[in-house]
Specification:
The chain has 118 residues and is mainly alpha-helical. Helix content is 47%, strand content 10%. Strand 2 and strand 3 form a beta hairpin. Helix 1 packs parallel to helix 3. The longest helix has 18 residues.
Length: 118
């Protein structure tokens, strides 16, 4: 579902980028949809290449849990990318995956300033 949300954001009528697309800023609504609840970091996707924006949002979804000591299932990142598949051709999706890996390698300490778990 997270991949689908990101895909809809960057391919919508007004393409959007969220510089803070971490799990603590997303909730599941009563209808079962994912909703961004902290929209301060949401901007029009103007200057940033779409694949780079997607990779940054996917990486944020992986960095925060790691920094809070939450072990994600090995399939978590793969499932996010699979959710993006309707919005991206396979070559673009492979580039996004490579960018995510690069962002994660270069990120450094993932510990958030404020731990959303308490």
């Amino acid at each position: 579902m997270l991949g689908e949300l990101v895909g809809r954001m960057v391919t919508g009528r007004l393409p959007l980028f969220n510089r803070d697309q971490k799990p603590s800023n997303i909730i599941v609504s009563t209808s079962g949809d994912l909703v961004v609840v902290d929209t301060v970091g949401v901007r029009a996707l103007a200057a940033m290449p779409r694949e780079r924006a997607v990779a940054r949002m996917v990486a944020s979804a992986l960095i925060e849990p790691a920094g809070c000591g939450v072990a994600l299932p090995k399939t978590f990142a793969t499932n996010i990318l699979a959710g993006l598949a309707p919005s991206f051709d396979p070559v673009a999706l492979a580039r996004v995956a490579a960018l995510v890996s690069s962002i994660l390698r270069e990120h450094g300490d993932p510990t958030p300033r404020i731990n959303p778990l308490g």
